[in-house]
Design a protein that fits this description.
Blueprint lengths: L5 E4 L4 H12 L5 E3 L10 H11 L3 E4 L7 H6 L1 H21 L4 E5 L28 H21 L3 E6 L1 E3 L12 H14 L4 E5 L5 E2 L1 E3 H14 L6 E3 L5 E2 H11 L5 E5 L8 E2 L4 H7 L7 H14 L9
Helix pairs in contact: 1-7, 2-4, 4-5, 6-8, 6-10
The structure holds guanosine-5'-diphosphate (GDP).
Length: about 325
């Protein structure tokens, strides 16, 4: 596998940047990355040209049109159209151009909004996802149907992985649309820097989430790349739920913020409990994440502080 020519689309994103670093560490040398200025992946001609020019043997498709909840609400059509076209074209042309193995990722938001926690892979088709991001998440979710159909009809080796709540270096730390971990790291860091004695956290602190350090998630992707060749989707997560309150306290401690945390009850809690079942990950991939939440947070904070001056971090 290490000798294969591997095309990674979306390599400039959160997962992509971490994946490239880890693949290189594992000794993968023949990696090809592309950017949106090279090829517009929503145009079939461009996608065909990409496969003709690059001739990859393996594809890890991380390209997606992503955004926060506000952007999803404002432009649902863009999120639907771009993701469904891009996902469909890239997998189709990969098959047409003789690619040996194809990996696609979809978010945990593809699961039904009311799936019981911990969410099992079998629950994927048991209901409609959270309506705010459904145009995005359903478009992404079609890659499961496509992968299974292409496997059945053409023997095409496409697999789909479902990471849980990711966090770590290269995450989106924007004040407008980041997830809870990067948002709070930034809030505590800036409060401390500016001498403020109060940080606002959203909701009640009662919800639970299952966080996986991105370094572990990309290791799971590499394990799947090397050893997993079956049609079933696989969750990639820690299998442990933590309350937002405990999370906030840990981040406050690690950033050495000594002030007060104020809970803003006007902000939504979102889903109350959201964990992911990881039995299939253990059984089919033989994979277990190595980084506990505390050390993952410490690494993320260290990275954030080091990169704070970059425009891409302080969005
Ligand atoms: P979700 O899993 O889609 O709900 O993702 P989020 O990471 O946006 O939110 C997870 C939980 O963290 C929710 O209960 C939020 O209310 C809570 N939370 C607390 N403070 C913040 C914050 O500053 N930003 C975000 N995004 N969530 C926060």
């Amino acid at each position: 596998m290490k000798e294969k020519r591997i095309l990674i689309t979306g390599s400039g994103g959160f997962v992509g940047r971490n994946l490239i670093e880890h693949l290189r560490r594992h000794g993968y040398k023949n990696l090809v990355t592309v950017s949106a200025t090279d090829y517009n992946l929503t145009e079939q001609e461009d996608v065909r040209r990409m496969f003709k020019e690059i001739r990859p043997e393996i594809v890890i498709n991380l390209a997606a049109y992503v955004g926060g909840i506000l952007a999803n609400k404002e432009r649902p059509a863009d999120f639907f159209y771009k993701n469904i076209v891009m996902g469909t074209l890239v997998m189709h042309e990969a098959k047409e151009h003789g690619v040996e193995k194809f990996i696609a990722l979809i978010g945990g938001c593809s699961y039904p909004a009311h799936a019981p926690s911990p969410i099992k892979e079998e629950d994927m088709w048991e209901g409609y996802p959270q309506p705010e991001s459904a145009p995005y998440s359903l478009a992404k979710k079609m890659s499961i149907v496509q992968a299974q159909a292409y496997r059945q009809q053409f023997g095409f080796n496409a697999i789909v992985l479902v990471p849980g709540n990711l966090y770590g270096p290269h995450d989106n730390f924007s004040l407008k649309n980041s997830h809870v971990i990067p948002a709070l790291i930034r809030k505590f860091y800036e409060a401390k820097k500016e001498g403020k004695d109060e940080v606002v956290s959203w909701g009640s602190g009662k919800p639970t989430r299952d966080f996986i350090y991105v370094g572990d998630a990309v290791e799971a992707i590499i394990t799947a790349l090397e050893d997993y060749n079956e049609p079933d989707i696989v969750n990639i997560s820690s299998g442990t739920e933590v309350s937002i309150k405990d999370l906030v306290e840990t981040i406050a401690e690690l950033t050495q913020f000594k002030g007060k945390v104020v809970w803003d009850a006007t902000k939504p809690d979102g889903q109350l409990y959201k964990g992911f079942a990881v039995e299939r990950m253990r059984k089919k991939l033989g994979f277990e994440p190595k980084t506990d939440l505390r050390s993952g947070l410490a690494k993320t904070i260290e990275w954030f502080e080091k990169n704070y001056d970059k425009d891409t971090v302080r969005l």
